[in-house]
Amino acid sequence: MARGVEASVVMMVAVWWSVFTATQAAQQNWTLSGTNLTAGGAVPGGVYSDLMTAQYLHDGDFYYRFNDLNYRLVSMDNWTYTTQLDVDASLLNHTRVALVFEGLDTVAEVAIGSEVVGHSDNMFVRYVFNVKDQLQEGNANTLQVKFESPVTYAAHMYDAQAADYIVPPKCVPSAYQGECHANHIRKMQASFSWDWGPAFPNAGIWKDWRLVGWNSLLVTDIYFSATPSSSLPTTPDPSFRPGWNITIKVWCDAAQESGEVGGSLTISLGNLYSLKQTITATVENYEAVLVSNFKIEEDQVDLWWPNGYGNQPLYNLTALWSNSAETETSSKTVSVGFRTVELNQDYIDLDNITKGRHYRVIVNNVTLFMKGSNWIPAHILPESVTPEYTRALLNAAAQTHQNCIRVWGGGIYETDVFYQIADELGILIWEDMMFACSMYPVNEDFLTSVEAEVTTQVRRLQHHPSILLWAGNNENEAALRGNWYATAQNFDQYKADYITLYVDTIRPIAMEIDDTRPFVVSSPSNGIKSEEEGYIAAHPYDNLYGDVHYYNYISDAWQGEPFPITRFASEYGYQSWPSFKSMHEVTMEEDWSSTSPMSYHRQHHPVGQEELALQVGLHMELPPQDGTAASYQQYLYLTQVHQAMAVKAETEFYRRWMSSVTDEGEGYTSGALYWQLNDIWQGASWASIEYGGRWKMLHYYAKNFFAPVITSTYMDTDNVKVYVVSDEIGDVKNAKLTLKLHRYDQLGAVFSVDNTLTVAGRTASEAFSLNLESDLALSTHCQKDLIDLVDVCFLTSHLALSDGSYLAPDNFYLLGKPKDAPLPDATIQVTSILGPTSSGSSDWTFTVTVNSDAVALFVWLETDVSGVFSQNGFVMTESQMEVLFYADQETTTGELQASLTVMSLTDTLSRVYQNQQQEGLKDSAIHPNDIRNVFIL
Ligand code: BMA
To answer: Which N-terminal residues, if any, form the signal peptide (predicted)?
Structure first.
């Protein structure tokens, strides 16, 4: 250890910029020109944003109504970004002078003056173009980046490929309102449209760029591997702090094409380690990799844990290169964490291997249930996503106990800041490679481009402790086996192509660069079993192996448990619409109906509106869409209720299967990642958070169903089963579980049973099995007219510690369907708002008291003030509830009260709704959701 070196390291970092001459994006003026118009260009940025800024695209909000269609011509044009480079003589004196583009979207020719210096064809590749010979001293250097229309390029590539054989799909379904052939261009696949998002195929210099000159090496990326020197305990023990064997690799751009270059490498890791080593680097094809191995002694380092299991200590790792003469340095700092990850696929029963294999995540030698969701791009234009918005979304995931997010393969390899925030929050990232729901070409150019893409991305992201695994693609194994795109007739060709791309091209590169985490060929897949079956398994959705994506829009999701007992549910979900507040921003009055052309336009899932109506109608009464904002808002609300209830049921189902297994081997479910966390725009989707950050009812429900300990009730014919599921490491003794029976027509409970139990850590166990009649006496407690007993009553469950404090959030289970229940006409009022006070969640925390004169289902609070409630969409069984509101910024009770509304399922019942219409409560304008006013008594 050479701690003394640290001081000089700091100084050397500080002089970095004085050594190189660099032209930074922020200082540079760019012009954007298309066939017919010219505008200012923002770099990093994109054409759509520039045209918005220049007011060429001026139809209200970017996502307003049919703008996706109206603005489509932009993507059909070719666009050129132009700037003048002012070049200093000293820059040209360097051995190598290059333009470095961290990202070009997508197909472009880069020229200085009339000389072409490079080409790009992949949004995910970092390009380094030599320009020394093309630049002149002074400002007479015109740099042009000429983008070809991504839509026409993809069509040409498709045609060229089709001359041999078609690589499908030929196009997205018409309901997507999108563009065809995204699979023929290495660009965000969803930018051509998806079943939750619009088509805005962008173009532009979407990441940083710079002009740089250097003589030796330029540090680009850092690899970090830490292996504990003794095995970690299977039960976390903070006092166990092993030593670590560390390997660092520093990838560098070299000034020379090949040969050797001498200098030194200084590695410093927090205050744990710092050493300067003399190094002779071997350069090949303008690249060098510097390697350093060292040990960290015991008791120096705290483990990095996923959210919910401990802290996320991060250590700064700096690699600093200096040439031999110490006249040139280059450095990079990343933050790293100490943890191990494993995707365990052991047989679940060595005596009977037909029962299949586990698919479980082991972090720091501890098996953890993965709770989380799937991430899609936060905006169709990457330049529109701020670090603050990214943080807000990931925070919302962490606040709802999520410890794993899958970055889905149809979007982008996310920004550095995304993974940095995930590192800080302890959210493990299941990282797909960006290939989704398609077959892909495997011609030489395409593969060469993919090689560069995987190299760029795995090198860039490898050091993040949050990244759990790499997955080759989204659903392409299942698509091929399932003949989604009519590939069956030429199956062997597509299978061979599949293996060429994912197994022979992507996997070896990813694994060569990153040997620290698993690589799975597809997501979902049967894992090892898929590989044994030649990568295209006979049944890719086999419950006994790997992960499963499961969607079912026909069955009753609230009851009846139509879900697969999978090892790992990496996608499942149900649609809903965003709130009226969100829809209002991009619609006009004539759009406010579930059957309006606008609603169909924004429902990209084929037959989605009908499926949604069916699903909502299974349990609730669909309001007639009579053109009023009130009935439209009720429809939006009901879709959110349906989604929240369905995903709650499905997630609880997966959690209940965490520690048991059927005789056939189904069970040991070890992950539940619902589809999808965030939205790309305001439209029908599976998201739990609306575009802009507003929580849907599902997100509030996720806070409960992902809690570390939950109770979960379901019906098994005439028996009610109550499970207690714990993700806690240890057991909790003397917990008291209470199950209460309630009637819809009276507040309070009519019957209850309780049980004192030990809640076993990392276990799901049945705590009650109660017969509806003999144990809960439904015919005694739930008689009303000729109504079915199960429609008169419902259940709530409560789990408390011996001191009375909550161990699990209160839960509820509806025995029947609300549409068949004698729901009372609850009048719900907010009776007081107190605050603000400071809480762990917000400096402006308000206590909102809600009163009801009757039982109310799915009580829903809304406000224009930015922030979240402590709970929402809840069931009221008592006359009063206190809910906290955590504002994002300074606000007052007055401001909160001014826009606070409350409604419940009662408000959507036709008898209530019609009464409101007769009483003249018909709302029309901006705020139709004042269905229940807020009274401050
Ligand atoms: C899965 C995903 C996405 C899609 C979602 C909902 O297939 O991988 O492609 O958006 O289902 O249909």
So the answer is: 1-25
Strands 30-33 and 38-41: antiparallel
- Asked whether the beta carbons of 771 and 718 are under 8 A apart, the reply is yes
Buried residues in 683-702 as b, exposed as e (16+ CB within 10 A): bbbbbbbbbbbbbbbbbbbb
> Which residues are near ligand 1 (CB < 6 Å)?
194-196, 408, 410, 436-437, 474-475, 549, 571, 675, 686
Which neighbouring-strand residues pair with 812? 796
Distance CA 787, CA 742 (A): 15
What would the pLDDT profile of 823-869 be if each residue is shown by its tens digit?
999 999 999 999 999 999 999 999 999 999 999 999 999 999 999 99
Residue pair 260/317 in contact (Cβ under 8 Å)? The answer is no
d(CA 767, CA 769): 7
For the annotated catalytic residues, the residue numbers are: 475, 571
- CA atoms within 13 Å, Cβ hemisphere of 608: 24
pLDDT tens readout for residues 122-176? 999 999 999 999 999 999 999 999 999 999 999 999 999 999 999 999 999 999 9
For residues 413-438, one letter each, b for 16 or more C-beta atoms within 10 angstroms of the residue's C-beta and e for the rest, the string is bbeeebbbbbbbbbbbbbbbbbbbbb
Q: How many CB atoms lie within 10 A of CB 403?
A: 26
In this predicted structure, the answer to whether residue 934 has a pLDDT above a threshold of 80 is no
> What is the distance in A from the centroid of ligand 1 to the CA of 816?
30
Measured in degrees and rounded to the nearest 5, phi and psi for residue 815 equal -75, -35
Composition of the chain by helix, strand, coil, percent to 5 = 25, 30, 40
Query: Does the pTM of the predicted model rise above 0.90?
Result: yes
Under a CB-based contact definition with an 8 Å cutoff, are residues 186 and 121 in contact?
yes
Residue with tokens 């008791």: 299
CA distance 850 to 564: 39
Q: What are phi and psi of 228, to 5 degrees?
A: -65, 145
From 473, 549, 678, 679, the mutation candidate for ligand 1 (largest count of ligand atoms within 8 A of CB) is 549
Which ranges in 359-506 belong to alpha helices (H)? 387-399, 416-425, 444-461, 476-481, 491-498
pLDDT at 918: 57
Q: What is the CB neighbour count within 10 angstroms for residue 871? A: 18
- Contacts of residue 748, defined as CB under 8 A and 6 or more positions apart, other chains included, come to 742, 877, 878
**Separation of alpha carbons 879 and 855, rounded Å:** 8
Atom of ligand 1 nearest to the CA of 573: 6
Distance between Cα 714 and ligand 1 center (Å): 28
Closest residue by Cα to residue 347 from 335, 333, 359, 338: 359
